[in-house]
Design brief:
With 322 residues, the chain is of the alpha/beta class. The chain is built from 15 helices and 9 strands. Strand 2, helix 2 and strand 3 form a beta-alpha-beta unit. The chain starts with a helix and ends with a helix. The model has no long low-confidence stretch (mean pLDDT 96). The structure holds phosphoenolpyruvate (PEP) and magnesium ion. Magnesium ion (MG) binds next to helix 10. Magnesium ion binds next to helix 10. It is an enzyme of class 2 (transferase). This is Phosphoenolpyruvate-protein phosphotransferase. One of its GO terms (cellular component) is cytoplasm. Its EC number is 2.7.3.9.
């Protein structure tokens, strides 16, 4: 099996009936990039930039950020790199920001909500990203978008910084795709409207599941409700993918579900274009997909959407390799 995976390392990801999908990796720092390449990653699908902000006693400067982004882009040699702007708050704290304690941190002041308020922090990050954009294939993604207004505001700030750089004579790529994480149900539900304005979606199932099921992803006592295969989740995922495709955009997934062997047949069948996962899951996933017919998986997924429980969906998926 290890032999087979090694052979797959330098190959594209193609289903048994000849459909290409992209297998990307989630990373936290530039040091993770060699692992992406070793494991045959076709892209970075999620660069969680919050680690740049954590483990220090003040905000990272524009220069520190620029160097990190440039390193990742260069090491990926022109392959796509989706950088997620700061997603702090929730379970991830930054002591030096001195934010008040909240009753429900996961429902509180985090990610793009904080960035749209502390625009000084956000603008510095956007500037660093824009400057780094000429060193590779940069895609920028905003986390925790709940409304179209938030997306428009964040995009406006990005365009302002781009204009400022242009005025300073600093070169910025004109090919930067701009997308959002779909991890809040409100956004999945009006994905058709978002799809007209974004370049891509990346479905963040880690949060999408917790918000849809109202089950804290860190709370053991309600973990039985944390159900990736619940038909409610699958229907939301389908809505997002269909909405993207209707506007000629691509849809990826960067939550844990994207690398899950039970979910992969369903996601392939629902038409997911990009699967972003931990680097070590890429070759097993590529091997699995090479043995699945996308047309057959579309039938399987259609059936799954009519199931009543997550357990029934799991049983249905297991039946394909029986
Ligand atoms: C997600 O919510 O699915 C996601 C990828 O983001 P994070 O796990 O960093 O919240
Ligand atoms: Mg998330």
């Amino acid at each position: 099996q290890i032999e087979e995976w090694r052979k797959l390392r330098d190959q594209a990801t193609v289903s048994a009936d000849g459909v290409h999908v992209e297998l990307a990796a989630n990373i936290g720092t530039p040091n993770d990039v060699p692992g992406v390449i070793d494991n045959g990653g076709e892209a970075v699908g999620l660069y969680r930039t919050e680690f740049l902000y954590m483990g220090r006693d003040k905000l990272p400067t524009e220069e520190i950020q620029f160097n990190a982004y440039k390193t990742v882009l260069e090491k990926m040699e022109g392959k796509p790199v989706v950088v997620r702007t700061l997603d702090i708050g929730g379970d991830k704290e930054l002591p030096y920001l001195d934010l008040p304690k909240e009753m429900n941190p996961f429902l509180g002041f985090r990610a793009v909500r904080l960035c749209l308020d502390r625009t000084d922090i956000f603008r510095t990050q956007l500037r660093a990203l824009l400057r780094a954009s000429v060193y590779g294939n940069l895609r920028i993604m905003f986390p925790m978008i709940a409304t179209l207004d938030e997306f428009r505001q964040a995009k406006a700030l990005l365009l302002e910084e781009k204009d400022k750089l242009a005025a300073e004579g600093i070169e910025v790529s004109d090919e930067i795709q701009l997308g959002i994480m779909v991890e809040i149900p409100s956004t999945a539900i009006i994905a058709d409207q978002f799809a007209k304005e974004v370049d891509f979606f990346s479905i963040g199932t880690n949060d999408l599941i917790q918000y849809t099921m109202a089950a804290d992803r860190m709370n053991e006592r309600v973990s039985y409700l944390y159900q990736p295969y619940n038909p409610a989740i699958l229907r939301l995922v389908k809505m997002v993918i269909d909405a993207a495709h209707k506007e000629g955009k691509w849809a990826g997934m960067c939550g844990e579900m994207a690398g899950d062997a039970t979910a992969i047949p369903l996601l392939l069948g629902l038409g997911l274009d990009e699967f972003s996962m931990s680097a070590t899951s890429i070759l097993p996933a590529r091997s699995q997909i090479s043995k699945l017919s996308k047309a057959d998986m579309a039938e399987l997924a259609a059936k799954a959407l009519t199931m009543q429980t997550a357990a029934q969906v799991v049983e249905l998926v297991k039946s394909i390799d029986a």
